[in-house]
Design a protein that fits this description.
With about 475 residues, this protein is mainly α. The protein contains 19 helices and 12 strands. The protein folds into 4 domains: about 150 residues, 3-Layer(aba) Sandwich (Rossmann fold), CATH 3.40.50; about 150 residues, 3-Layer(aba) Sandwich (Rossmann fold); about 55 residues; about 90 residues, Arc Repressor Mutant, subunit A.
Length: about 475
Amino acid sequence: MTVVTRFAPSPTGYLHIGGGRTALFNWLFAKRHGGKFLLRIEDTDRARSTQAAVDALLDGLSWLELNWDGEAVSQFERKDRHAEVAREMLANGHAYYCYATPEELEALREEQKAKGLPTRYDGRWRDRHPSEAPAGTKPVIRLKAPQAGETVVHDKVQGTVTVQNTQLDDMILLRSDGTPTYLLAVVVDDHDMGVTHVIRGDDHLTNTFRQLQIYHAMGWTPPEFAHVPLIHGPDGAKLSKRHGALAIDAYRDMGFLPETMRNYLLRLGWGHGDDEIISTAQAIEWFNLEGIGRSPSRLDFAKMENLNAHYIREAEDTRLVALTTPFVEQKLGRALIEAERDRFLRSIPGFKPRVKTLVELADGALFLFRARPLPLDEKAAAQLNAEARGQLATLAEKFAGLNDWTAAAVEQVVRDFAEAGGLKLGKVAQPLRAALTGSTVSPPIFEVAEILGKDETLSRMEDVKNGP
């Protein structure tokens, strides 16, 4: 059997972080078994299903590098097939026309509420002939659900879950306007697409009982089900807007790497011993449904940042430049020229151990590209008092005579200067850092001087010679 999984989001304008994890689990399970990972856009809600919303979903999946097999399927475009199956169940005696009016059903619900009963359809048209229908009423098609016994879900995460069939009413399959309901469409699509494993959030578990009844009515073999607990906020409450970023693209905009998000989302509800850092190759090799926990997972933004710092250190320098340059250019309000990109590339090794996000990297690197004279932050300005400016002026004279402009050579000049003046190295290096970067935090300052080059270093030191 070829394993076939699917991710079937509703287009809401972005890929939710929970949806991203669901897609990842499906993708990994398919990859683990050499199967297929399919994408279906459940776009039957025409008011919300704009092309822009669909594009946002596809963009989020592409950024996570969760590539699907074949073309994305539109559920709306399959509505005729869904209706065909409803009519087939009607012909086989597993469904029936219901002519109850909206007013009747509302009165039924109010009566049930008043008696403290669950609100459900009472099957009033289950055994009646359409000839009894009131004139001009367009019927819906309802499933003739079993009224005795139980429906059982053998779930790969939740275990065996059972519901008595008396608790399930005859759900609508086809509305009076001929459009299919979500529960029917999902079953038909999963069957027709050959889906073998449905891995989704446990908020769909109650739907599964009804969907199994459709499978049984059609004589189809249902897929295996695995219902994954939802993601909660850091406070343990259900994830909501007040917890911050809910969309995958928000994490991209905050400077997270896709491999970070794959690793973090994998560990958000799935485990492999004590392993925290798990490469994508390892994830494909190790992933199984048995490793998914039954309890909701909590977002931990600090852990996510620390994980991102690891992957930044592991990333190729050229890739980091390519990913971070858009952040830099946005902050500068202009494009980098080739020489600046080269300067940026040479600075990356100094930044790697110091940053947790690409945004931090971009912020830290701005001094490389800003026009002179550099703006000084408060701490940098405090470093450049009259005494420090005088020392830098003398140091600049020594730099001017230096022909071997390397970090090591610059460092030696500074050390010799400090020693000759009876100064600690930091008393010279920190004002130099302030002059060259406008800040008191940067990569190693002697490396910075080498990256800036002799002329730019001397020019920046000249800028602060006489104070602000």
